[in-house]
Amino acid sequence: MPPSPLSAEAFAAAVLRVARFRGRPVVVKLGGSAMEDPAATDACLRSVAALHLLGVPLVLVHGGGKPIDRAMAEAGLTPRKVAGRRYTDETTLAIVVRVLNEINARLVSAIRDFGAVAFGETDLLDGERLGLVGTDGPIDLGRVGRVTGVDHPRCWDDTSWGTPVPVIPSLALDPDGGWLNVNADTAAAAVAGQLNARSAIFLTDTPGVLRDRHDPASLVPHLTERECRDLIASGVIDGGMVPKVEACFEALEAGASAALILDGRVPFSLLDVFLSDTFTGTEITR
User: CB-based contacts of 38: which residues, under 8 Å, 6+ apart?
Assistant: First the structure.
């Protein structure tokens, strides 16, 4: 079914609204789960290209959890989780780097096919080994890291209009030049903070924060960090939503003005944020 015709008045209003987002970058995190639906991924990348062509500075950070799991299964390896994170030995790391580079190349190619300028680089993030401490002492996660620095000039040049879209895989280089596997949510949060982003948008496989996980109508559209912490303490926010919300906290703490959790499986959910005061998802602010 063809889309409804867009009136000239509506088009002018949309362009003027989008133009308000120029001047500060927006960091978009595309998760591996959200990328499982080809139609939704296509719509997301079309949105990225359209926003770029309208002058909105975007940075796209991506993971690849499910494709990595499939690649490990093909290699006869079983993913191992330690403290909720993927344990990354050298064999696992080689698969992670290969799969993320393959995903990165596909995303960059698709954005370019839609007429925007994009580039993919694996050396934009600096990092260090992630150290966690459990009840029995230090927790060894292998080659898992956290972001300590972002190549700001290559990610966002505030002196020029139409800076190419950086497409960044969730990898970082340690001080010795070795790869580190970084959680994509925390990588996006760090990028958003260090670039002083207007917002960090997390495209996930959930509608946002729900008061009742079985009822999409219980979606909470706006929350403060304090309200989120209360919902975590009460058990309303639990399971896999906790690290997503904590990544929003990290983005806010690092300097982003707002963080949003959107359902990346819904086509053009990203574009809705720029075109309307109301959108389906949860916005978290300080």
Answer: none
